[in-house]
Amino acid sequence: MKKFDIPTQYRSNFIKEFKAKRKAEDPRKKDFSPTSVKFLRIEMLYARHFGFCYGVENAIEISYKAIQENKGKNIFLLSQMIHNPHVNQDLQDLGVRFILDTYGNQITPWSKVTKNDVVIIPAFGTTIEIEQRLEKMGLDIQKYNTTCPFVEKVWKTSKKLGQQDYTIIIHGKHKHEETRATFSHSSAYSASVVIKDIKEAKVLAEIMRGKRPSDDFHALFKGRYSEGFNPREDLNRIGVVNQTTMLATETAEIAEFFKQTIIEQHGSEDYKTYFADTRDTLCYATNDNQKSTLELLKQQADIAIVVGGYNSSNTTHLVELCEEQFNTFFISSATDILSANRIQHFDIHEKKTKITEQYFPDKKHPRVIMTSGASCPDSVMQEVTDKILSLHDF
Ligand code: SF4
Q: Does the beta carbon of 244 sit less than 6 angstroms from any atom of ligand 1?
């Protein structure tokens, strides 16, 4: 895989060393068991895969190149480049400004952006409407386009399905930048609708089968279907794609559910006429990180620490998995570990930060699960490790 030139502040020699060792021992990534590192008292179990993915390193490399090559110019990021507060803050500290927030709300008015400025497209990609707006303004949107190739692959799959006359069902979070971009690109080729989970898949199936009125579709999926979507006609032939960072098991369940629904309607002989039996469009990093986390769940451990941005979809899913088995704390940096007894962490269900007392196991040889999302620098993971050791490993 391509090697990227990213600032050393995001690297960690300690982590690089054990990742390199695992890679040398298992170059074909067959073994997803964790890496155990024993300190004085504590044993840390690091996921086989965690930290920066291809798309994130690519985006960071391009963004720093844009800064380097355009001294004295206004440099804008269309929105958060990736969902990590440290990386975004570093770019802002270097003078980069955001045009939109993570939900598409305006931060810098369009009137303040001129054709002489530089606009960086984030790793999530953007909508066709915004691409056209920027091009109309005379901006070169390809020069510093950091759209991840794995996101573009989803767009290509959607285009192919659309050209074969399938309606696209997108499994994703409709407010997420990537899903907004995918929805825009797939809507250019086909009727499209975004669903967030299996519950919504079941509702959509009832509408498909005429067990619910069409009006329910327009009410329940408001803001999430393409213009002119006609549930009576547009749900006859369907294909499923997904946001690259969804939970693999959930996407598989949704695709299988729709397949069975179509088989019930049309029989198993003919179902491919009505259902595009494609593989999921999760990216390799999501798959590797989730597989590694599933291996972590087989371990005996006292707590799990997951590090990443609170708005990071892939990190949230790692938390969801770890919670099945461990007392899990989702933190964004070492500063969230407030003291030996107190930790500040994000509750993904209540969507707010909390403080928990006595979070660390009071035992002689605690075992701690450690992992992070695809947008979290290894240097942040190293800082978290150091903080835990400084407070507990003596
Ligand atoms: S998580 Fe996957 S799709 Fe997203 S930037 Fe990384 S490699 Fe690309």
A: yes
Q: Where in the chain is the domain with CATH 3.40.50.11270?
A: 54-136
CA 81 to chain centre: 12
| Other residues' Cβ atoms within 10 Å of the Cβ of residue 213 | 12
Query: In a mutational test of the pocket of ligand 1, which residue from 57, 155, 286 has the highest number of ligand atoms less than 8 Å from its CB?
Result: 286
* CATH 3.30.70.1660 corresponds to the domain 151-281: no
Instruction: Using the CB atoms, write b or e for 75-94: b if 16+ within 10 Å.
Output: bbbbbbbbbbbbbbebbeee
DSSP state of 166: P
Q: Are 124 and 151 within 8 A, CB to CB?
A: yes
Give the nearest ligand 1 atom to 150 CA.
3
pLDDT tens digits, one per residue of 262-283:
999 999 888 999 999 887 788 9
pLDDT(121) > 90: yes
pLDDT at 104: 87
Residue type, 247: L
**How big is the chain by its Cα radius of gyration, in Å?**
22
Architecture of domain 8-53+285-392 in this structure: 3-Layer(aba) Sandwich (3.40)
Q: pLDDT tens-digit profile of 161-208?
A: 999 999 999 999 999 999 999 999 999 999 999 999 999 999 999 999
Q: Whose CA is nearest to atom 5 of ligand 1?
A: 55
Residue 208 has which token pair? 């498909």
Q: Does the domain formed by 54-136 have CATH 3.40.50.150?
A: no
According to the model, what pLDDT value does residue 109 have? 96
- Atom of ligand 1 at shortest range from CA of 58: 5
Residues of the chain with CATH 3.40.1010.20: 8-53+285-392, 151-281
Residue 350 has pLDDT above 90, yes or no: yes
Separation of CA 20 from chain center: 24
Q: Which residue's entry shows tokens 């997803």? A: 32
What whole-number percentage of the chain has pLDDT above 70? 100
Cβ atoms < 10 Å from Cβ of 320: 18
The question of whether 200 is a catalytic residue gets the answer: no
